[in-house]
């Protein structure tokens, strides 16, 4: 997986602000669906973030002009 600067910033946000571990994030990115769906939705589908956290992620993405 190639990670661009916005992806790095998103991963930092997920780890620092939402306290997700690298292992939590890896759960979502290891699955085949990762190539077909946005990371925030996959994190929610796997129960790694709740709706309030998902909303915070989308707010962060909107602030950074990058909805995935």
Automatic annotation (TrEMBL):
It comes from the Bacteria. Pfam families: DUF2949. This is DUF2949 domain-containing protein. The lineage of its organism: Bacteria, Bacillati, Cyanobacteriota, Cyanophyceae, Nostocales.
């Amino acid at each position: 997986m190639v990670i661009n600067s916005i992806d790095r910033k998103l991963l930092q946000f997920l780890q620092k602000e939402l306290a997700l571990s690298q292992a939590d994030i890896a759960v979502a990115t290891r699955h085949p669906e990762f190539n077909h769906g946005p990371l925030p939705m996959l994190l929610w589908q796997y129960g790694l973030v709740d709706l309030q956290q998902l909303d915070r992620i989308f707010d962060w993405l909107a602030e950074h002009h990058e909805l995935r």
